[in-house]
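re the bet — no i am not wrong, look at it urself. input seq straight from the record:
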Amino acid sequence: MTETADDLSAPLGQDKPRRKRRLRLPFTAMQLLAVLLGLFLVTFAGFAIFNNDPLGGEPMARLAIRAPTATDEKPAASGHGAESKSDAKHETKEAPKQAAPGEQKTITMIDGSTGARHDVVIGSGDAADKGDASAPPFVMAGINPKLLEKSRYGMIPVVADGLRPFNVYAADADRAKAAKMPVVAIVIGGLGVGAAKTLDAIMKLPPAVTLAFTPYGSDPGKLAERARAQRHEIFLQIPMEPYDFPDNDPGPQTLLTSLSPDQNMDRLYWHLSRMQGYAGLTNFMGARFIATEPAMQPIIREAAKRGLGFFDDGSSPRSIAPQAAANQAVPFGKGDIAIDAVPTGTEIDRALNKLESTARERGIAVGTASALPVSIERVSAWTKTLGDRGILLVPLTTAMLKSKSS
């Protein structure tokens, strides 16, 4: 038997201890963790790709709905939940039943261009929405009640006695003078969310500037009422689906191309009920929706039915709104220049000069802007001397009527 060096050095009379064999795994703990993480990512990616949910990014709430009984107590006013993302007030369609009272919810609005976040409260707060069926419908000051009809969400505009809201709520203007000289209209949008910036636009801009309100905010009707008291003409912005929805989400009750016409009409009625006294509608975002004919046509038809104008902000070059409005004889206008696309004083002044040149060339020009402090400041300064340069500042409705007649 051959002896090794270890055998020769081992103490005499003692057996050599057997070396224990260690169990070796085919992979390390880190490798195992990496495999598990990979399986998780593959599963998540598969769910995201193959889960076909067109409403996956839309804020949603589910509420139980039942008809109240005589023994029911009047519900307490709902609180504000900081984490809730939707107002979601829904009622039953049966006329005899009374719907569950509306709730006020806090949503977070995200500015698609700046990323700024604004927490706003949605909920009308009038007596009818709080479940008091005996209370008269809420009507804002200076509104012709004949031009309103009750919907499941509140009062919405209607044509009556040959009167159309577009004509009744159009701001005063010297239309005879407007027919003879170049005119400029300016629409400031995104109002109603943020009382401070809305009041700045109302008070610092001349009355001929048209103000467009989103349907969001704790009480957009009150701010719209204040704007009309300052002789501003107002339009209602309707949130519509952009191409990158839901990554870029206009807000609750957005009109979507994936919904049926009846579903979008129900959402439209919710928006129409949020305030009163507007002369027309305009898109809030919505590049995909406004370019999709089956989705957009019913909205234009409804605007015609209710005596409203429609303003296309000009952000979608594929918009079908001009043709649809012409087919329905809806008063129509389209934005020519986004004044504060680059929100600096120098660039805004450059855009205003371009707007002025467009008015001289074509006789009409319409500019759009948001209620940024720098936008309000530059527009206000520019309009003060516009008349001296032979151009008339007019409300949007006047520009729309001049465009139709020319």
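see?? Residues 60-104, 121-136 have pLDDT under 50 and may be disordered. told u. also The CA atoms of residues 80 and 199 lie 24 Å apart. so pay up
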